[in-house]
Amino acid sequence: MSKKVFLEFEKALGEIDAQIEKLENDAMENGTEHQSEIARLEREMTQKTAEIYRELTPWQTALVARHPNRPYTLDYVDAVFEDFHELHGDRTFADDQSIIGGLARLGEHPVMVIGHQKGRDTRERTKRNFGMSRPEGYRKALRLMKLAEKFGLPVFTFVDTPGAYPGIGAEERNQSEAIGRNILEMSKLTVPVIATIIGEGGSGGALAIAVADVVLMLQYATYSVISPEGCASILWKSADKAPQAAEALALTSDKLLTLGLVDKVIPEPLGGAHRDPKLMAAALKKTLIDELRKVMSLSSDELRERRLARIMSYGRFETVQPPETEEKKTAETLKAAALTAVDAVEAKAEDKTEAEPAAKKPAARKPRAKKADEGDAGAAAEPVKKAAAKKSPAKPRTANKVVKTDAQG
What we know:
2 domains; 8-stranded mixed sheet; 2-enoyl-CoA Hydratase, Chain A, domain 1
């Protein structure tokens, strides 16, 4: 039995558990009766656990997915499958122990099982490279998938990795090609593929064995393009911002189900799969058998068409307006007021321009009215002028001639 480990946000649970353990030890050593007190503390423990796990943040969920007591692939292989026979090596370079795989039976069906494997202690973690696979690990997985296709065996994969190993040797052996090749070939497999994310699902290292007809996810597992710490280091230059990064990455099972990246979420026991591994394995086995029954009825062409459609559906997005801040509202108000003032000034200027030509145009002058005396005098003088003109006709004009006299003669 592994030692109980409580995470930072589970400190209250650790204190209750310590009290229960103390009473149990006292009962064993001294024969003291503490059953009623232990029962009360166990009820309190259950209630407190439910309260904590009901309000888990994405960052806390990521911590649960990494819990050192959480079941790994080999734990589920032993509990879910029968007659497991492990196969080794990629037939090219080496046998990467961070990925295990082999033949097994699920009920009456012979199947191929492949998955990431972490370690429980320092020695095993080093052997498994902390679940971070190298290119030879992914090539081993692909070799086993092709073997399963050759014999018509369904493929079950289990994802639990922080990401593909980024070491120099891995890059020299073309890590990206190995991941890309797996994604390509898995999309074309003619046999059913069912993937289950049981812990961490980190980046391309997870996707390299997760291109499937059905993608399942345990309730407190995570699945994202990068770890929260890695995201925080890039965006904020500090891993301390990991909780904010986890929120932004939408890496929890409920968010991924909403986005359509996983098909079904398998509920975990109260407090996580590590609290009751047997109950978790039983629930997982039932789900795997049900999903296998559904996809076994599909033809090879239907499997590939559905798989391709699934891949092509990734990348949907929704455009939303950012929430307005008080500063933005104030700026918009000032801008509107300024535009209103400008419009008022322009309107006033236009009115003034239209009024100026009318003001400068001279008014039409009225004819001057004649005085009565002037009119009468003019009328009386008119006949006199006519009479004078008749009496003194105009003298005829004569030519200016020079007349010579006898004296000048």
